[in-house]
Amino acid sequence: MSWTITAAEIPGLARGAAVLGTGGGGDPYIGALLATQALRAHGDVTVVGLDEVPDDAVVLTVAMMGAPTVMVEKLPSLDEVTAPVHALGAYLGRPVTHIACAEVGGVNSTIPIAAAAALGLPLLDADGMGRAFPELQMVLPTLYGITASPLAFSDEKGNVGVLHTVDNGWTERIARVACVEMGCSVMISGFSMSGAQAREALVPDSLSLCVEIGRTIASARDEKVDPVDAVVALLGGRELFAGKVVDVQRATTTGFARGRARIDGADASLELSFQNEHLIAELDGRALATTPDLIMVLEHDTGEPITTEALRYGQRVRVISAPSDERWHSAEALAMVGPGYFGYELPAHRFDGSVDAIEEVAA
Questions:
Q1: I want to staple 21 with a disulfide (CB 3.0 to 4.6 A). Which of 66, 132, 232, 340 is the partner?
Q2: Which residue, 201, 145, 151, 146, is CA-closest to 171?
Q3: Among candidates 130, 78, 123, which has minimal Cα distance to 104?
């Protein structure tokens, strides 16, 4: 069923996207500003479900690539957001019919809204992950043989390029170098797919879920009930830990925001490891949850999501976990997004604390 995104929907949608972004995906406030500007200038965006997309549609993803910490000071313009779509459409020689989110986290759920508004195109109620991941190839379409390239990219200076690579891993490697040289954040468009491919490879109803999460948090606050508990119930997850942030080590390296955060409770400490997104949650050295399941940090009382670049000493927070799309727990997917890929010598621990049998055998 189709529905319409208006400027009034953006704050709640951005809040929900920041929750699903697992700490990454960029500052939701910046993405919300950009989407609101585009909607007010160009009109509302029609959102269509995957079952409404024609088989022969030409779908492109639009996203920000780079370190979320940089985007706070390096704000994109609408021209920068639309330039890769124009470049890729010309390269493909076919009109683009639909825009999609590569990931549903942070700015990468709102930048596609801005692109769809400025281009006058419908937006899919879907995304490529069901969460956020740090590298370009880490999307479900990769598992279905859908190539990231040709991939177009642009920066705030007006530089625009199109990459054609041998596979999605090489797209990530080459585009990441370009991204670093262009100031550690660029706008990209790629993963050209048909409507039939989109129905098979994408996660359905992602934007609807963002809106629902945002409304759930707002309603819980209005009704004076616990918003964190409400989010946990909505996502079918669990609360891992509550405490105060006592240490954050963070650096922008090779185009990523990498680091660790320590949260102290009454008699234990939780350590979070992140690369743009939270990857590992360990309680006194024991893994509670890992990528690819979702690890999220929310403000203790309000339930407001806190991104990795916004983590600060003294914040009172609660860490929650929720299940990812089940396809992320296949052997092929775990090789791409499991703890081992990021250099951690432990098997994938699901949100409920159980160990993924595939990675347990591999370990």
A1: 132
A2: 151
A3: 130
